[in-house]
Amino acid sequence: MNYKETAQLIFDKVGGNQNISGVIHCSTRLRINLHNPSLAKTEEIKALTPVMGAVYSGGQYQVIIGNDVGYVYNEMVKLLDSDKTAPAQEISAKPDRSLKGLFNSFAAIISGIFQPIIPAIAAAGMLKALLLLSTVTGILSKEGQTYTILSVMADSAFYFLPLLLAFSSSQKFKTNPYVSVALGGVLLHPNLISLLGGEEPVRFIGLPVASVTYATSVIPIILTIWFMSYIEKFADKISPGPVKIFLKPLITILIVAPVALIALGPLGNYVGTGLSSGVFWIQDRIGWLTVVILSILMPLIVMFGMHKVFYPIIFAAIASPGYETLVLIAMLASNMAQGAGALAVAVKTKDSKLKQIALPAGISGLFGITEPALYGVHLRLKKTLFACMIGAGTAGLYAGLVNLKGYAAVGPGLASLPMFISEDSSNLINALITMAISIIVTFVAVFILGFNDEGAVPASGEPTLADGKDKLAEQPIKPQNTKAKYVVFAPIEGTVLPLREVNDEAFAQEAMGQGMAIQPANGKVVAPFDGTVETVFRTKHSIGLRSVDGIELLIHVGLDTVKLKGQHFNLHVKEGDEIRHGQLLMEFDLDEIRKAGFDTTTPVIVTNSADYLEVLGHDSPGLTGPDKPLITAF
Prior knowledge:
By secondary structure, the protein is of the alpha+beta class. It has 21 helices and 20 strands. The strands form 5 sheets. It has an 8-stranded antiparallel β-sheet with strand order 15-11-12-13-17-9-8-19, with no helix packed on it. A 4-stranded antiparallel β-sheet has the order 1-2-4-3. It has a 3-stranded antiparallel β-sheet with strand order 7-20-18, covered by helices on one side. Strand 1 (20-25) and strand 2 (29-34) form a beta hairpin. It starts with a helix and ends with a strand.
């Protein structure tokens, strides 16, 4: 995958700096905040080879990349230019005040606040689990100084959770992060803790201050920073310029801190306690059923990126009583099922390309990263998704009945098994049994339900992949009335080259799809089939087409010619235009582009190659042209 080019393509198709207000990422997704989500070209983004899917959910535009998302994110950040980002009011759509819109806004806030702090919490949780393992096995003693120091390291992220949340909340509510952390420090100050822990009631300017412990708390600090976002704007407005640097934060702290101690802190504490109590009340009565239901629905929840809304429940439970028995358990059952389902597909399928996708996706799923399996295999085959739900639901039933507990806020999988270690060894054993049930039942369900294996049943008289490319090449190209049904004709006159000889890693490794390349003999690009213009890049060097038969084609004139910013290119069509085979689409000054030092080799890529059993190039020596086939898709 060419991370830079992938980031550039996504950046352009969501509207660039004019439409992007912020970007973060989780383990598999770019999560982009857009001023106007309707401007994003979702279908075109989905068509990009490295992209597994794209969806607007939870108030964020989510692009599923997979395990390489961090690299794409790093390239995306380089493209962001705050000076060029349009103010929200210039481009934003009308706020959605419907129930769905309000829920999406809430989900976006929750995800934006909790996602950045997960590494710290996950590391602390795993350290607690390993520390417990070391005492159970006798490696360390609880009375030893080494144990004490490691325990402090494990507890610190939870104890100072309000500080972590203060900083991440400041990013979401657009407040000064350092003043936000200072307000979090007020809630955790040792003197305040000592004062609130005394026998006498505490009052501030005559108003009662509730005796609340804020260490490990979640909701109080979020409410505090939300309130601060309004007070800080007020303080900024009334503070004179010469003294704003100290007067603005002073006013903010003097107003927000007392309100937090007197009202927002206690309110948040009651809400958090009520949320935890409600979850435990449900689980005490029908806990096994809630685990089953959530295990079955988890793939759909993940598909829409809504699993992030469970963070407050997970974090609150891990903080007190120290374990979680619903969401993490359902994730374990679902993760194992999706991984096993993809591996079952890899074993059963006779389609070599599907096998290459399913095998690594299955392994990734067993380690807790399910998007490659979900988007690359199960949503494509559909029946296997139902098999995964059967396996997850069965495993969830067992886990719910034995009250399986998770002790760390981390994605459940093979690598994170220590999250189930406790002083009661049966918990880890039950986790292993849950995993085994999920894997075995899903594997069997995939083989019973089956799936549409395109590589297993060849059409009558047609060659299969097993016959090899040579036999496919021997088949005569069927004329499609004046064009062949699955044929792409050459869009440029010139010399044909195989993609592997293109001096660009992304094209040469077919990261964007299969196809051929042409060394142009002149500067004209014509339509290689009847169809429509899907994409015209603003730099004019590249154009995306779709044939009437569904072939999606990218014609990329030259390498790195995006740097020319449209110079030496002249387009004759626009997005949405219908085109006929042989119609002039673009002209470019071949000599000037070469004088500028650019390689004019032009890749012609079938970007939806995965939709076809095979994509073959016609690389016979000599010149090609609009009357000659270049690519055949079977």
